[in-house]
Specification:
This protein is α/β, with parallel strands linked by helices and 252 residues long. The chain has eight helices and seven strands, in the order E-H-E-H-E-H-E-H-E-H-H-E-H-H-E. The radius of gyration is 17 Å and the shape is globular. The chain starts with 11 loop residues before the first strand and ends in a 7-residue tail after the last strand.
């Protein structure tokens, strides 16, 4: 008997930030295994609608849900709407994130404490709340997958700024605590930490200067992050890990 979960037709995945490159690729990867998908978006309504149509064409249930995940009430409303319209998620990919429109910060004075706190709330705080809301039903089913999209910045400080790096590293401690608390209850908890992925909000297109920083000489693709998430969903022995997917940039 295989220990891999390859038939997800009885499962529902809630993917936050689903209209970005990584979110979209992950939705499609899970759908190919029959998973129902709750597509979260904030402002990209047309992109979400197009993605839902594409998922439905693969023969899975899919619906889009708008929520501003920079606010706790947005997370509460999102969870309530998903449960009401599709049921309780057994897979949660906390993928939504924000930089406050700031990158390449060189001096700590460039980030106000208000921006720092808002970034933490949008990148880690609402992900914690969604996890808190989703876990009880996972415990009841003795099966669940909680995955966080961190960043290599959580290990190294990265190239965006202190607000972003600290919000991502905060995820790592959260992952380790959750993993210790829920591993014996059928729930695995992990994180994926990408670096320099093109076709995303941070890097819409290829960039030769950034590619030169990567040991393998190119930027990553959203599908490569989705494949890592899929591995974490399928493989119940992967637990309490934050896996850097970065072309060899960071020696973990």
């Amino acid at each position: 008997m295989s220990t891999l979960t390859t038939d997800l037709s009885s499962h529902l995945a809630l993917i936050t930030g689903a209209t970005g490159g990584i979110g979209r690729a992950t939705c499609l990867s899970l759908a190919h295994l029959g998973c129902s998908i709750a597509v979260h978006y904030n402002s990209a309504a047309d992109t979400a609608a197009s993605l839902v149509s594409q998922l439905q064409s693969l023969g899975v249930k899919a619906k889009s849900f708008q929520a501003d995940l920079s606010a706790y009430n947005g997370a509460r409303a999102l969870h309530a709407a998903v449960v009401r319209e599709m049921g309780d998620p057994t897979i949660l990919f906390n993928n939504a994130g924000m930089t406050m429109g700031k990158s390449g910060v060189k001096d700590v004075s460039e980030i106000s404490v208000e921006e720092f706190e808002q970034t933490w709330r949008g990148n880690c705080g609402t992900a914690f709340l969604l996890t808190q809301l989703c876990i009880p039903s996972m415990v009841g089913q003795n099966w669940g997958r909680v995955i966080f999209c961190s960043s290599v910045a959580g290990f190294t400080g990265g190239v965006v700024g202190p607000h972003y790096a600290s919000s991502k590293s905060a995820m790592h401690g959260l992952i380790h605590w959750l993993a210790g608390a829920y591993g014996k209850k059928g729930i695995t908890v992990n994180g994926v930490a990408p670096a320099l992925i093109e076709e995303t909000g941070l890097l819409p297109a290829s960039n030769d200067d950034l590619s030169a920083r990567i040991p393998i000489g190119r930027l990553g693709k959203p599908e490569e992050i989705a494949e890592t998430v899929l591995w974490m969903v399928k493989t119940g022995y992967v637990h309490n890990k934050v896996v850097a997917v970065d072309g060899g940039w960071f020696i973990q």
